[in-house]
Amino acid sequence: MEVKKKISISNAPYFFSEEMIITKKSLNENQLKFTYQKQLISDLDNKHKEWSKSINSKF
Questions:
Q1: Confidence at residue 33, expressed as pLDDT on a 0 to 100 scale
Q2: What is the DSSP string of 2-19?
Q3: Which helix (H) or strand (E) holds 32?
Q4: Nearest Cα to 40, choosing from 2, 54, 32, 15?
């Protein structure tokens, strides 16, 4: 019992919110969405760079 008291009294910041619960499934789905969006942005950035090079070479 004393160990639990020491842990709960600790001033360490909480990693998880006590007010919000997210399921592991939801967390994984959000991570997949985030990864997909990062890839889309990266692809779009590369397309813009290629487009910019082609525009600059015409002028």
A1: 95
A2: HHHHHHHH--PPPSS-SS
A3: helix 24-58
A4: 32
